Amino acid sequence: MNRREFLTGSAKLTATGLLFGLGASKLVKAGSTSIPNSTIPAVTLNNGVLMPRLGFGTNTLNGELGIRSVYDAISVGYRLIDTAHIYGNEEAVGAGIKKSGIDRKELFITSKLWVDDSGFEQTKKAFKTSIDKLGTDYLDLYLIHRPRGDVKGTWLAMEELYKEGRIKAIGLSNFEPHQLEELNSYASISPAINQIETHVFFQEKVQYPYLKDSVTQIEAWSPFAAGRNNIFSDPTLAEIGNKYNKSIAQVCLRWHFQRKVVAIPRSSQKAHMIENLEIFDFELSDQDMNTIVSLDLNKTQFPEWG
Ligand SMILES: NC(=O)c1ccc[n+]([C@@H]2O[C@H](COP(=O)([O-])OP(=O)(O)OC[C@H]3O[C@@H](n4cnc5c(N)ncnc54)[C@H](OP(=O)(O)O)[C@@H]3O)[C@@H](O)[C@H]2O)c1
């Protein structure tokens, strides 16, 4: 994001971002330097909390692989780490964080409440279990993983935890607009995030414009469609990448970034982790952004999770 874009950005939070790093301190509002020492641009969420616009996904990175991957990710510069109770890797993620030696304040840790733990009391217990496994005393972001079970009880518990300062921001995952609206009818805190499936093959024709115009920031899960539909050998993406001397992965992540969508790519390979961070030194043209629109299949690539 350039300085002009920053200065002319509306109060709408999805359009607002801050760049940490060289010379950026002037742009950062007082009290908003909660992610120091990172060059990854951040978005200001609807409660003023800063969130890196590019993070690290950990689904399937369990055990030793999880520890090593999280350690590597932090060592190459990731600060947003996305996990969930259902991934069964919160302990490994916590161990990777501990091994990195990084100051907790420099990290942005997300976890998610699984459907089996929905409801007011269960949510409080599940939150405590998650933070204990992660080895932290607070979460930066806690999401309702799916709109199932006692969503209202869950949300009210999350609001309490938020007010107690145990969670810096609360949000949703896999909520459709009508489900988000229902939640907003009783919520006293608007969700900061909706983490949904979106990538070049599923551009979310309905959800994307809806969220873009709301105070709820969009976050993309499976920003590479987890490799499905041969994304990493797609000829259109390869041709676009060649113009900028960038890989297909970098084109995809830059596309998310230019759509102002937070992305959390997963990788178990350090070289890929580094490659995925190198997206802030080029800009896809409007023409290339439009070409990518033509790749939309307008449907989930994970029908088994429906
Ligand atoms: N809220 C939800 O319901 C939900 C659902 C699914 C996922 N998520 C979150 O979103 C995160 C990301 O989604 P995902 O894990 O499904 O998949 P993804 O990030 O879309 O894709 C991961 C795949 O891409 C490969 N990859 C990564 N960088 C690459 C590169 N530069 N070049 C070539 N291949 C590359 C990885 O292989 P290598 O390991 O070989 O690099 C891996 O096979 C998850 O880890 C999780 O944190 C949330």
Task: Please tell me about this protein's structure.
The chain has helices spanning 3-8, 63-76, 90-100, 120-134, 151-163, 177-186, 207-212, 235-244, 248-258, 270-277, 286-293, and strands at 17-18, 42-44, 50-52, 56-57, 80-82, 108-113, 139-144, 167-173, 193-197, 217-221, 262-263. With 306 residues, it is α/β, with parallel strands linked by helices. Mean pLDDT is 90; it is low at 1-34. The protein has one domain (3-295): TIM Barrel (Alpha-Beta Barrel). The protein is globular, with a radius of gyration of 18 Å. Strands 4-5-6-7-8-9-10-11 form an 8-stranded parallel β-sheet. It is built from 11 helices and 11 strands. Helix content is 37%, strand content 14%. Bound molecules: NADP nicotinamide-adenine-dinucleotide phosphate. NADP nicotinamide-adenine-dinucleotide phosphate is lined by residues 57-59, 82, 145, 173-174, 195, 221-227, 232, 247, 249, 264-269, 272, 275-276.
Q: What is this structure's SSE topology?
A:
Elements: H1 3-8, E1 17-18, E2 42-44, E3 50-52, E4 56-57, H2 63-76, E5 80-82, H3 90-100, E6 108-113, H4 120-134, E7 139-144, H5 151-163, E8 167-173, H6 177-186, E9 193-197, H7 207-212, E10 217-221, H8 235-244, H9 248-258, E11 262-263, H10 270-277, H11 286-293
Parallel strand pairs: 4-5, 5-6, 6-7, 7-8, 8-9, 9-10, 10-11
Antiparallel strand pairs: 1-2, 2-3
Helix pairs in contact: 2-3, 3-4, 4-5, 8-9
Strand segment tally:
11
The hetero molecules present are: NADP nicotinamide-adenine-dinucleotide phosphate
Low-confidence runs: 1-34
- How does the helix and strand content classify structurally? alpha/beta
What is the domain total for the residues? 1
Widest beta sheet: strand line-up: 4-5-6-7-8-9-10-11
Mean pLDDT: 90
Q: What integer value in Å does the Rg equal?
A: 18 Å
- Helix content range of the residues, please? 25-40%
Range of strand content: 5-15%
Give the full name of the CATH homologous superfamily.
Answer: NADP-dependent oxidoreductase domain
